[in-house]
């Protein structure tokens, strides 16, 4: 029923916006200094300024550098770039120098001017790699966002991590819970209604076409995809009872993994061999995270911290989750833990920090941060112990995937 899907949806309701603004916490680490030199000859002053700001932003978010003014005498690196525009086509040359010696010299081409943030992201990502610094492979990856645009209507939007670039992919009706279908980010799953029945679709970005995968009464949501991309963890409620299912795309076999009389949702594969799943359940009387072997019906409590843990994401043997703090009204923080040890680490502080998602390399986490009446997309650089915020202003976000 539509009611069940909308109740599930309400857990992840947050606010959307645009212009990137950085806020860094946990400062104090000594980083190599870098100078940025813009050698572009552009008549488009807005593009010139925006691209420069994006490069500066990316270098800071990488957490590998301290960006200093061009006149600084103590810099370790120089980041020189030249951007040219020919119609809708952009050409970019980036040179990285250290002590006067050229470390890299790379050329890039982009056929759509509006996608310039990804050009900057890729250039910085590659430069970090050439210098042998901590990688930021996630930086030019795309983020999927389900955004409400009117009553009972929502869009699937594709954006860069700063939310500067935004493109509506799916529109019309209620379109929810996008989830990337492969590592190449050429396809994604999402939930929509087909003749008033919740249906899981797969959208192919190369053909701009959607195909039906599964339908179910109550709800159907894809929460995770295995590394090969041939198996999906799905939350379904054919009898108005949300449970976790495993769907094999090759054999079309649907197997039920949980059978609890309450709520089991938001399952994720965990472990190097993806032989286990973690999921959110209310079987303790409040939302918490449980772990279960594939092929088993026995679930064990995975998190023994907090009494409202309603969202989880995984990377190898690690999981990250949002937890409501006791005796702090409305405060949710993000925690990182390993299933192989007692390791647990708090990653956020104060306010509502919700819906965490691991990056592809596990080194960063994206989440939604509520700031009074506004919200922001947060990026945690785990090893650097830094957090960056990109404010949101327009509409409401139900869910995200990175």
Structure description:
The protein is mostly beta strands. It has two domains: 283 residues, Neuraminidase (6 Propeller); 98 residues, TolB, N-terminal domain (Rossmann fold, 3-Layer(aba) Sandwich), CATH 3.40.50. It is 10% helix and 48% strand. It is built from three helices and 30 strands. The strands form seven sheets. A five-stranded antiparallel β-sheet has the order 1-30-7-8-9, with no helix packed on it. A hairpin with a 5-residue loop joins strand 26 and strand 27. Helix 2 crosses helix 3. The chain is globular, with a radius of gyration of 22 Å. It starts with a helix and ends with a strand.
What would you call the quaternary organization?
A: single chain
Structural class: mainly beta
CATH homologous group name of the largest domain: TolB, C-terminal domain
CATH class of the largest domain: Mainly Beta
Mean pLDDT over the residues: 90
Major sheet attributes: 5 strands, antiparallel
CATH topology of the largest domain: Neuraminidase
How helical, in percent, are the residues? 10-25%
Number of domains: 2
Head-to-tail CA distance between termini = 28 Å
Low-confidence stretches: 6-27
A few lines on this structure:
The chain has 3 helices and 30 strands.
What are the key terms here?
402 residues; 10% helix; signal; 6-blade_b-propeller_TolB-like; five-stranded mixed β-sheet; Tol-Pal system protein TolB; Rossmann fold
List the helices and strands and how they pair.
Elements: H1 2-10, E1 14-15, E2 33-38, H2 45-61, E3 66-68, E4 77-86, E5 89-98, E6 101-110, H3 116-130, E7 143-150, E8 153-159, E9 166-170, E10 176-180, E11 187-194, E12 197-204, E13 209-215, E14 220-225, E15 231-236, E16 243-248, E17 254-256, E18 264-270, E19 276-281, E20 288-293, E21 299-301, E22 309-315, E23 318-324, E24 332-338, E25 344-346, E26 352-358, E27 364-371, E28 374-381, E29 386-392, E30 396-401
Parallel strand pairs: 2-3, 2-4
Antiparallel strand pairs: 1-30, 4-5, 5-6, 7-8, 7-30, 8-9, 10-11, 11-12, 12-13, 14-15, 15-16, 16-17, 18-19, 19-20, 20-21, 22-23, 23-24, 24-25, 26-27, 27-28, 28-29
Helix pairs in contact: 2-3
